[in-house]
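Closing statement on the manganese (II) ion sub-project.
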Amino acid sequence: MTPVPNELTRALKNGDNFLVTSHVKPDGDAIGSMSAAGHILKSLGKRFVLYNESGLPGKYTWLDLPAEIHTRPPGNDFEWIVVLDSASPDRPGEYITGRIKEVPTINIDHHPDNPDFGSINWVDPAFSSVGEMISLVAKQLDLELSGPLAHSIYLAIVSDTGFFSFGNTTSGVLELAAGMVRQGLDPGEINPLINNQWSVGRIRLHGLALQRSEFIDNGRIGIICITRDMLKSTGTGPEDCEGLVNMLLKVSGVKVACTLREDEEGRVKISLRSAGEEDVSRIASRLGGGGHKNASGGIIDAPMLEAREMVIAGTRGNIQ
Ligand SMILES: [Mn+2]
C-alpha cells in the first residue's frame, strides 16, 4: 500500500481554504471520509467547506460533522479542492467537474479505474476505503483517532468492508478499528446507529424484493428487479434499496448477485456483487459502468426487461 504522499501532507499543512467533496448520492465511505477530512482540517485550524451535491443522507444525521454539508456551491475562492472516493472528475457533479479545471485538486481514492485527475493524486485500490486512507493522513499529522474523527473513519471503513466481511478486510483495517476501540470508540453504540435505522417501509420493500428474487444459470446468478411501483407501494426511495444486492450472496451457490433498480422510465441502475475471485467490475465496465472487483455498478438506458436481459447476457459470458 502506498504511503501518504509528502506533497499531500504539505498541501494540507501549508494551504488554507479547502473545499472538501465526494461523489453524488454519497455512501458511508463518501460521508465518513469527508467528515474525517473536515475534522483533520479543523484540528489544523484551516478554513474549509464541506460540499456534496446530494447533501447528507438522513440516515447519517447522527454523525458529529465538523461543519454542515453544503448542497450549493459555497463561494468560489478556494485554494484547494479535495475530492474523495470519486473514480472520475464527474462523480461529484457538474459544479466540481468544472471547478477542478481551475483550482488545484487533491484526489484521494481507492477505485482502480481512477485516471489521476487531480494535481495531487493518491489513488490506491489496495485500500479498503477512502476512510482508511484518511486515517493515515491523520496519523501522519500526529492526530489521535478518537471522538468524532474516529466515528467518521469507522463509518467509512465498515461501509466499504461490509462490517469487516468483504475480501478487502485486511489486517490493517482490523488494526485500525482495534486502535480506535482502544481510544474509546464503542462498537455497541455506533453499530446500531449505522445499521438499524430502517423505516417500516424499507423492511417491507426488502420483503417484497426478496420474494421476487430469481436464481438462474443453475443458481449461479441471483437477480432482483426493483420497479418504481415497488418503491411507491412501500413509500420508499432509491436509498432504501441499499444492501439488497448483498442478500443474494447469502444463497449457497450464487456467484454473482445483481439488482436492477428502475430510476425512471427507460433508465435502470444496476448493482453487481460477487464473493471471492469472481470479478464483477469487468461485467460492469462492459455495461458502461465500473467499480471494484467484488462491488460494481452502472446505469443502463433501457426498459427494465431489456436491462435485465443485458445484465444476464453480460454476466453469463463472464462468470468463472
Ligand atoms: Mn469507497
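The mean pLDDT is 96. With this model delivered, the sub-project is considered complete and its resources will be redirected to Aim 3.
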